[in-house]
């Protein structure tokens, strides 16, 4: 998992993320059925159309301090829906405010009134962090089953609503470059507020619509005839690279025991505006293309932590993507509950390749393959497996990701990750590229975790390929057992190269990289370790600024007191440290500063040296230029 959120009141670990944007404008308590009427379509277009306007507004008004004096005061919760504690900072809910954190997001963020979009359970607002100017998305989820009245303003709020809490429960388990990040959670008596990663590139559905001229949610007729002139929306090579990222996200979910239950093209969003740049030429003299932004899975309003012995409720999600067994009614078999997500992925891939949905109920065997004649045999074979009507015969995601149709995309990603690893890390025999993780001071590791949490997609794209390759090689989350199993499959030959060498090193330093003790190395943790080990890598100024702002709680220096406040929340699933690792884990934040600074504080001008491993205490003015540059970058007033 990972460490550190992004506000003044943060926990010591923050590993997962989510940005939700649903183009369907249905009532928040009603699951979307997948068929958009004209009003919903218009609302979707308007919501997407104001996105650029809202982002521009936030960038020009970061320094404005819109007070919350006119906002209705929130009362302290006596029984929170979301329990305090965990890997993501959670504010509000404790009687008396024993954590010292506010349950009102307006204390930390400016919120734009007009929504960016709509999730399965709430609307999404643009949020601007008051201190650092960072842009976030805030999903406001009402805890009310019906509107409160003046006579009973809180009586209608159920405090044990599983639907409202399971979204957060699912997201707390996840930390993957293709799952949008959840930064922190606020809760008051009426609502839960999820502060998430802002994704501005639109959905995969948005990319398909201008290419095909046909809305993919219009299924083909049984005759196979459509009004579109072109039967394909994406070239197979482009679709394979995109679909592999989608599979990586779902593989991570299922490995952590989470089923999404509402996978659709609308719920895969690009981190930025998708662009393509030519890389190499293949044997047919055609250009391969490399994506310059990631696609991320969003909206966990229907997600559920999957128990093997617990049947799942049917007819959950979007009808057009719903698996036959889910649409038929009756409880779903828990042993194959994850295969409903596989079906949804098959529907999405069909739409990506043909510009339309498959026939919902084929009347003849040939109807299921109608319109696929122009696809390669491998693509047709994959679609037939994903859209197998018997869930027991449908392959799991761990098998799908190794299908021959994806082999070229997998080989290309492995080649890019290998080239990046060779250029960025020092390999030897035996390898020692991660040895610095064990030797690094705990405060430096904590600082790099904070930087990794704040690093934006375009600056982490090459690192994300390394993580995806490792999870695909290990068949899911990077647990110690999965890494050991992968090591046993390696040949007795060279172990110093990628990914074999990195697997060996992660086994050796597993207890150190696993900073939160979750028994699993998440994306943020691996990214922090790679940032520490990378040769001559310059960290972006914005990430350093936000990381310092997080650990110093908005003050001029990082101190023992600020770390105690920043790390107030207990770690989930943490195991006792062994005698060998107790001194190296991030368990005692108040002692970290003493290991580094005799003065008991790390000032802003010294923070960059701490990140680079060249820390030396200054007189207080040596870093003024760096501080002013960061302040000017974010339109903030530099402190004297």
TrEMBL record:
Protein name: Non-specific serine/threonine protein kinase
Family: Belongs to the protein kinase superfamily. Ser/Thr protein kinase family. CDPK subfamily.
Species, as recorded: Polarella glacialis (Dinoflagellate)
PANTHER family: SERINE/THREONINE-PROTEIN KINASE
InterPro entries: CDPK_Ser/Thr_kinases, EF_Hand_1_Ca_BS, EF_hand_dom, Kinase-like_dom_sf, Prot_kinase_dom
An annotated Gene Ontology molecular function: ATP binding
Nucleotidyltransferase listed as a keyword: no
Source lineage: Eukaryota, Sar, Alveolata, Dinophyceae, Suessiales
Claim: Nucleotide-binding is one of the keywords in the record: yes
Ranges for domain EF-hand: 501-536
Biased composition (Polar residues): 223-232
Occurrences of domain Protein kinase (ranges): 110-406
Keywords: ATP-binding, Kinase, Nucleotide-binding, Serine/threonine-protein kinase, Transferase
